[in-house]
Design brief:
The complex is a heterodimer. Chain A is an alpha+beta fold. Chain A has a single domain (7-126), classed as Nonspecific Lipid-transfer Protein, Chain A, CATH 3.30.1050. Chain A has 7 helices and 5 strands. Chain A has helices at residues 7-21, 27-32, 76-84, 89-95, 104-108, 111-114, 118-131, and strands spanning 36-43, 47-53, 58-61, 70-75, 99-101. In chain A, strands 3-2-1-4-5 form a 5-stranded mixed sheet. The longest helix of chain A is centred in the first third of the chain and has 15 residues, at 7-21. The two termini of chain A are 13 Å apart. The mean pLDDT of chain A is 94. By secondary structure, chain B is an alpha/beta fold. Chain B has 2 domains: 3-141 and 322-363, Medium-chain alcohol dehydrogenases, catalytic domain (Quinone Oxidoreductase, Chain A, domain 1, Alpha-Beta Complex); 162-293, NAD(P)-binding Rossmann-like Domain (Rossmann fold, 3-Layer(aba) Sandwich), CATH 3.40.50. Helices cover 26% and strands 25% of the residues of chain B. Chain B has helices spanning 45-49, 134-137, 149-153, 158-167, 183-195, 207-215, 228-235, 251-257, 282-288, 299-311, 330-338, 360-363, and strands at residues 3-11, 14-21, 31-39, 58-59, 63-71, 83-86, 89-90, 110-111, 128-131, 138-140, 175-179, 199-204, 219-222, 241-246, 261-268, 291-293, 323-326, 345-348. In chain B, the strands form 4 sheets. In chain B, strands 3, 5, 6, 9, 10, 17 and 18 form a 7-stranded mixed sheet that branches. In chain B, strand 15, helix 9 and strand 16 form a beta-alpha-beta unit. In chain B, helix 4 (158-167) packs across helix 5 and helix 4 packs across helix 10. Residues 358-365 of chain B have low confidence and may be disordered. The chains are: A alpha+beta, B alpha/beta. Chains A and B meet through helix 4 and helix 6 of A and loops of B. The structure holds zinc ion (2 copies).
Amino acid sequence: MAFFADANEVDKYIGGVFRAAADHPESGPKFKTADLIMKVIYTDPDIEMNILMRDPMQVVAGPIDEEADVTLMMRADTADKFWRGEYNLAVGMAKGEVKAKGPVNKILKLVPLTKPLFPMYRELIAEKDAQG
Amino acid sequence: MSTMRAVILKRPHEIAVEEIELITDLAPDEVLLKVELSAICGTDIHPYEGRMEVEDDLRLGHEFLGTVVDAGVGVQLWSAGDRAVASCVVNCGFCHMCRRNQPGACVGLRIFGLGLTTGGLDGGQAEYVRVPAADLSMRRIPEGGAGTDEDYLMVGDILTTGYEAVRAHYTPGDVVAVVGAGPVGLCAAMSAQVLGASKVILIDKIASRLKEAEAFGAIAVNADETNPVDAVLDLTEWRGADVVVDAVGHPSALATAIRLPRAGGSLAIPGVYNEETLEMPWGEIWFKGIKISGGAGNITRYMDEALALVVEGKLNPGRMVSHRMPLSEAAEAYRMFHAREAMKIVLDPPADPPSVPVPDQERSP
Ligand SMILES: [Zn+2]
Ligand SMILES: [Zn+2]
């Protein structure tokens, strides 16, 4: 069974951690200078999200008019594991669980910025974990 | 709790040697290697300087050699006591690119000690290191070969990187020009010699490094004294070099290197570039039909060739090692390497007293 009940939950928690990232003292400013639009197509539940890494940083649930620089596709469960710090992106890409289109180097460069956000995500998700 | 020492990059320019928990949770494909030598590489300087974005508290090191102490249940080729060198690049072995023998382009590529960007493998500048996909990633260090441990150590990265830069686009008798007489450049130049290049030209600005190049028969060009483009043209009847290697990874080096290949020649770029875009003389590149290659090295593809030449004493990259220091002096080693006070530094973890407490009955005879 999928971890997230519906698209709204993906937006709330996964979208939420990206929104919180903008205000993180170390990672936030670096995300904002990336000058990059990342589209992520989550499946099960299905939702497309667009993360506009600029100042101000924007996280949009659903399609946008601008074209993305990089597009990722993964199960929403995979995103949950990633943000908990339990998922190796390189291994995931090798297995084909995560697919990427566009200049992937731009995204990989940003991956280290996500590590300081893992505790934030765990806090965010704690309430859902508690619902069991 | 058993512990081990490891070199940690706390944040840019700040190296610490810390006691951390010993690795005990081996996956089925992994081995635990007791590190006997681990080198500092030019690539380590990218996160050290902050030029490459990495997470804090990063365990550094991707060039190492040691003895297997434990192996996961799925490991077939290795058992405790085997001595091995690991490829700095771990490839998956089964993706589209791996199956076309391009492990450096593996979609799941992981590199030791360079952080989450490259798969988050902990580094080997430590007493112990975990090596995944061990059957694919490691090579045995033969007993009785002509190589020294310092020579074998380099097979996992810089020797094979320099070797591939020449070998991948090379025809016997070619003129090979190498920009940058650092460790990778020297490895490329010595590989070109062994492969039978008609001329090997090495370009740098540091006299001592050029002297090293001359010692094994390369033609040294000091870019401070001579225009390197003119020098290479003069040495090739104004044709240009067949194979050019940019072993620096800085836009100024690339600006020189891109003008050195002959029409139809090639430029291999083992130097690391993080720049998003650079200005290039595109008309010249197109007109000459220059083949350009870069990206992570195809280490597991070429390391057997490089290793064989080390075993027979034909390649001896260990001669570049200028300093051998205990792991505990890693901070000083990084400072020296960064300041270019050392050509190549290897860290020697067994030189420090072991950090795992020895049980009493073993201590007294
Ligand atoms: Zn290296
Ligand atoms: Zn692969």
